């Protein structure tokens, strides 16, 4: 389901996404409240969510989806711009699964949708950098030593690459691992660090000083 207050943007996204055999747009919504109503009826596999919208913005909508018993397991993939950087951390807290820039190309968008629908959390490296610029201005809250102490050297290495915004496939290429093995490591990190999703791992990696 595409959620954006601009009709032309929704039409463009629909055209890009449906130009493939494995993605279907089941509905559109102009704001978060409409997305909730239609989402309960249509039960999409994924919400593609804008942040800046009237009535109910993307952050409030994401939090409402996470609180809804019928929708809480549905991934929310946020579309953002550099002007939205003040909201990105709020979106993490609200439960968004991934973050994309609206100027990404069509193939990258389709790939990110597939990744999010499969249960992973795509985070654009550029968005990750914006997130970190916000974190740098926040009061420091270091990751507890015992949390990082529970990680193996390989897990810390994986966490650093997640913090740089790499996907499982990209981590596998860098470390000569299969994507499945990289995914297993990321799952362990989520458990050991009590992180909800990959986006929170990005924050943890930077707070722990694993990424310059």
Automatic annotation (TrEMBL):
Residues 1-117 form the Response regulatory domain. It comes from the Bacteria. The keyword DNA-binding applies. Pfam families: GerE, Response_reg. The modification 4-aspartylphosphate is found at residue 50. Residues 144-209 form the HTH luxR-type domain. Signal peptide: none annotated. InterPro entries: CheY-like_superfamily, NreC/VraR/RcsB-like_REC, Sig_transdc_resp-reg_C-effctor, Sig_transdc_resp-reg_receiver, Tscrpt_reg_LuxR_C, WalR-like. Keywords: DNA-binding, Phosphoprotein, Transcription, Transcription regulation. PANTHER family: TRANSCRIPTIONAL REGULATORY PROTEIN NARL-RELATED, TWO-COMPONENT RESPONSE REGULATOR. This is Response regulator. It comes from Phytohabitans kaempferiae.
């Amino acid at each position: 389901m595409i959620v954006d207050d601009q009709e032309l943007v929704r039409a463009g996204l629909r055209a890009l996404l449906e130009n493939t055999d494995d993605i279907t747009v089941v509905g559109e919504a102009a704001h978060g409240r409409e997305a909730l109503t239609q989402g309960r009826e249509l039960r999409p596999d994924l919400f593609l969510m804008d942040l800046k919208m009237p009535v109910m913005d993307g952050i409030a909508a994401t939090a409402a989806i996470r609180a809804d018993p019928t929708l809480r397991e549905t991934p929310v993939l946020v579309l953002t711009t550099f002007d939205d950087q003040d909201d990105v951390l709020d979106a993490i807290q609200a439960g968004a699964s991934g973050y994309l820039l609206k100027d990404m190309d069509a193939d990258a968008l389709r790939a990110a949708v597939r990744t999010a629908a499969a249960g992973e959390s795509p985070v654009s490296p550029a968005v990750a950098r914006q997130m970190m610029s916000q974190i740098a201005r926040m009061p420091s809250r270091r990751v507890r030593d015992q949390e990082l102490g529970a990680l193996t050297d390989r897990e810390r290495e994986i966490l650093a690459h997640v913090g740089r915004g790499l996907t499982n496939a990209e981590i596998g290429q860098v470390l000569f691992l299969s994507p499945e093995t990289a995914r297993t490591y990321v799952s362990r990190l989520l458990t050991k660090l009590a992180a909800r999703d990959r986006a929170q791992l990005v924050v943890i990696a930077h707070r722990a000083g694993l990424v310059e």
